[in-house]
Amino acid sequence: MLLSVMSFIVSVHAQVFTDSNLPIVMITTDNNWPIPDEPGVLGSMKIIYRGPGLRNYVTDKDSIQFLDYSGRIDIEIRGSSSQVVDKKAYGFTTLKPDNVTNNNVSLLDMPSEND
Fold it and tell me: What is the pTM of this model?
């Protein structure tokens, strides 16, 4: 009896996100809670943006000169039928450090608003 055994080695390489031509948005929810439909959850958001046509880097997450926003937010999933797709739509409100008061700010050169 001849027994043939074949083995395959599958190698998977993950690509690490480090930079982009687009602004980079980093969101961390308090206690790493998942983002629900309603009500929203509290968290922090940073937007890394060096300016039009410039490359943005994740390593700039603590560089004040490259942060378009760094502060508190309340965030939730938006839409109804779109909630089942892989790419979710989110709505958020920028907040002052007290986690209650709306914080009207200009994001990416848009007019000041909090949501």
Answer: 0.82
